[in-house]
Here is the input.
Amino acid sequence: MTMNKLASLKNKQRLIIVFFALSLLCISSLVYLYEGFYRSNQALLDNQSNNKLLISSIGLMQVSQTLNGLDKQRSLSVFTYEYAQISKKYQAIQADLNAFDSGRGTHPNYAKQVGDIIALLESFSDVAKVRNDYNYRKNTLRVTVDNGIDLNANNERLYLWNLLKSAIEAKNLLTLGELYRDFIHVAELVENDNDAETKKIKNISFGSLNVFSTIEKIISLNVILNRHLEEVINKTDKLSKDIVIESSNDFIIDDFKSTRIIYFIFIVLMILFSVCFFLFSFSLLNKNKKILLSLSDVADLKPFDSIGRSSNNLNDKDLLFYSKIIPFIVREKNPSFILLDKNDTPLYFSKVFYEQNKQALLSALTSSNQNKLTYSLQDNHYFLSLAQSQKNEALEAELVQQLLTVEVSSVQRLGSSEFKLIFIKSEMDEQDRQSKRLDSLATITGAVAHDINNMISVIVSSLGILRESKSLNLSEDGKVIDRALFSADKSISLIDRLLTFSRCKKLAPELVEINELLEGLYEVIGFATDEKVKVVLALTDKPLYTYIDPGQLETSIINLCINSSNAIQSNGTIKISTEVNAADRLTIRVEDNGHGMPKNIQGRVFEPFFTGRKKGEGHGLGLSMVYGFVKQSGGSIDLESRVGQGTMISISFSLKQI
Amino acid sequence: MTMKNLFLFFIFNSFVFSNAVIGQESTLKVYCSAKPDSCLWLKERMDSVFKIASSVEVKSSGDVLHLIEAGNKEGFDIWWGGTGDTHLKAAENDLLAPIRLNNLDQQLFWSRNILEISGQRSVGIYAGILGIMVNKRVLTELNLDVPQCWSDLGDTRYKSQIIIGDPNLSGTAYTFLSTLFQIYKGKKTRQIVSDIKQNVRRTTNSGHKALSPLIAGENAISIAFIHDVVSVLDDNDDLAVVIPCEGTGYEIGAASIIKNSSQAKAAQNFIEKSTYPEVQNGLAADIGLQLYSNINTVKSRAYFDDRYFNLINYDFFTYSRPQIRKRILDLWNELD
Here is the structure.
C-alpha cells in the first residue's frame, strides 16, 4: 500500500468525521429549532394565561392606588361610593383568578386570597358606617357654626365660634384638645350670659353630640379606618407582587432557561462524543492501519481463475464472499493473503499480495496456454509454479519454473467449507525482524570481537617478542612461532570483519569519486573472481562523489563480487553499475546471473557466519561485513534474488554535490 | 426654675422626708420616665397638695419596660411618664393594672384615647410636638435654605448636616421615623428615610444629646420635641423650629399602674391626682413645658404658637406594635 493511498484514506477518514460532526450539528440544530418552536408555542399559551394573571395583578394595583387615594380624602360619601366600587373590582378580579386557579392546580390559590381581602374590607365597613353617621353630624355642625359666625358681634363669642370652626376642621386629637382647652377657658367668660347666641354655642359645644366629641369620634375612627385600609392595601400590594413574581418565574426560569440548559448540555455532550469518537477512531486506525487500509478498498481482491486469469472487476458474489472472510482478516491483522479452494488453487489474492508479487503473477498470465500453473502448500510455504510440458517425449517430464515461493504465517479454514485462507508472512515484517536480528547480533558480535581482538593483540605482540628473542634460534621453534603468528593474523582479519559488521570499526571517510574507485578496482576484481566469470562495469558518465572510507568500500565491493562469483556455477556475468536516483542517492549495484537465493534465506544472508557454501569454503562474514560497513556509513543495502535468475545487491549512499 | 419654686422645693422636701420616715407603709414606689425636674416636681406636689407620699426613681421608659417585663422585682407601683408606645406595649403584654379615673371627663381627648387603646390601663398625661431644629447661622454660612418639609431633609445639599438620636435608643428619633412612615406610605418611605440617612452625620444615644452639637454650631439640623428646646430657643437667636410642611408627629407621655402593685388603689389615686391642674400647671408652665392632659391645666408656654399644630393623625396603637416597631427599626438599621 503506497503512501498516497494512506493519505487518501486519512482524508476519507477525516471526511467521515467531518460529515458525522456536521450531521450531529444538523440534528442538534433541528432538535433545538423544534424545541424552540415547541417552547414558543408553549410560551404563547402560557403567556395567555400569564397575561390573565398579570391583568389581575394590575387590577389589584389599581385598587391599591384607589385605596391610597381614599385614605387621603377621608371623605365619607366618597368612601361609601368608592367602597362599593372597590368591592366590585375585587370581586371581578376574584372571578378571573378563580377561573385561572381551577386551570392550574399547582398555583397558590389567589382567588382565595382576594376573597380574604374582601372579607377584611367588609369587616370594617361597620366602622365606616359609624364614621359616616358622625360625618353627617359634622356637616350639620359646620353649617351651624358657619351661620353663627355671621350673626355674631361679641368678641368672646366670635372667638368661641372660631374655635368651634377650627375644632370641626381638626385632624387630630392633640389639636382638638388644645382647641377645647381654649374653648373652656373662654367659655367661662360667657358662662353667665343667657342670650340665645350663647345658648346656641353651649348647645353645640357641651351637648350630647357636641362638636368636640363628634370630631373626636371622627378622628379616632379615621385612625382605625386608615389602619384597616393600610392593611388591605398592604395585602393587595403583596398579592399583586406575588402574582407578578410567579408569572415572571413561570415565563423565564421554568421554561426558557431549562430549555437552554438542556440544549447546551446536549451540544456539549455531542462535542464530547465527537471528540471521543475522533480519538477512538484515530487510535483504532493507527492500531489496525493495515487492516483498515485493505478493508477500505473493495477492490482489494484479485480474483484468479483456475487457469490463472485475473479480472479486475469483482462481481457481487465475490464481494459477498469477501465480506465473509473479513472477520478472519481482521483477526489476523494481515492484509496479505490468498484464498484457496479445496485443491489449493488460488481464487483470490489480496491486493497487497498481488502488488508485492505482481511480476511473478503477470508472468504467469502472459505464459502460453500450454503452460500449466501448479500450486502446492507444503511446510508453511506456498508454491506457485509454472509447469512447462516438454515435447521431449524421451524424458516425459515437466520443466517446472518456480514462480513464487511465499512463507505462510497461518492457514484459516472458512467454516465448514473447503475454502482456505492463507496469510502470507509480510516481507516488510520479515525485513523488520531481520534488521532487528542483525542489530542485536551486531551488538553481541561487537562486544565479543572487541574483547577477542584485544586478547589476540596481546598474543601477536607476545609472539612477535618471542620471535625476536635471541634465545630462540632454533629454526624449528621459529616455524612454530610463525605458524602461530599466521593464525593470529588470520584471526585478526576475521575479527576485523566482525568488527566491521558490528559497526565498531573506526572508519576513515574521505571524499571519493565512486566511478574512479570502481574503475581502479576492476583489475583486482578480475583476480578475485573466477576466471569464467565476466565482470562488466556500467558506470555513469558523470563523476559521483561521496564521503566514505575508500578502503572499506573497496573491500565491500570485492566481497560482493566474490560472493557473486561463487554463485555462478558455470559461465556468468557480474555487472557492476552505478546510478543516481531522484532523491540524490548514488547506488552501486552488483548483480549476477547465478543460482539466486530462495526467499526464506534471503533475510539471513547478512548474518555473520551464515553461508550457503559448504563447510570450510568460507566464513560467511563477507556480506555481514558489507552490511555493517554500509550501515555505519549511513547507507542502505538491498538484496533482490530469484532462484535460478540471479542476485542483485544494491548499496546506496548520499551523493555529495561538488 | 423660679425662686418661688425653689423655695417651695426646699420646704416640701423636708416635709416629705419626715413623712416618709413616719409612714413608710403608704409610700408609693414610682418609676418616673419624664424629665428629672418634672419627676421631682411631681413627687413634691403629690406630697404637698394631696399628702401622698412617694419614692420616685427616674428611669428611661425603655429601662422601666425591661424591669417590669422582668417581673417588677423591686415591687414598684406606678410608672409615670415616658413615651406612650412603651406603656402600650406593657399594656399589651398584660403587665399593667386597669385604671379607672374619676375625672375622666376632664381629660383631653388624646389622654382618653390612650386609655381606650391601652384597654383602660394607661392614661395620657402629657403630649409634645416634634419639629425640625435648625441652626440658621450654620445654614447661612453654608449658603443653604432652611428645610421646610421632612422630604427636604433628604436633599443632598444637607449632606452630613443632620445629627439625631439613634432611633433604636431615642424616643424622639423613633417618633420622627414613625411620623415619616405615617406620612409616606409604602415604598416611598424607604426612599425618603434612605435619603435622610445619607445626610445623617452621626447619631447620639438620646434625642436630647443630639441638640448639643446643633447649639454649638457643629451641624445645621436636628430633630426635637419643641418643649425640650423652648428654653434654648429663647437664649439663642440662631436656632429655630420648623414644623414640616407635611405635618408632624407628636408624643404622648402616659401613666400606668404596674400590674402586681400592692397598693393599686393608692396608685390609682396617685395617677388621678397627677392629672389635676394642681400638679400639671407647674409642669406645663415652668418645668416639663409639655401639653398636659387636664382640660383645666394651663396651656404650655412652649406651644402658644398655633403653627406648631400642623399635626398628622398619629396612630399610637399601630406604631407601638412590636412588629411594626421592629420593621421600622430594621429598615433604618439596614440602610447604609
About this structure: The two ends of chain A are 37 Å apart (CA to CA). DSSP finds 18 helices and 14 strands in chain A. Confidence is low (pLDDT under 50) at residues 292-299, 392-396 of chain A. Chain A touches chain B through 25 residues (CB under 8 Å).
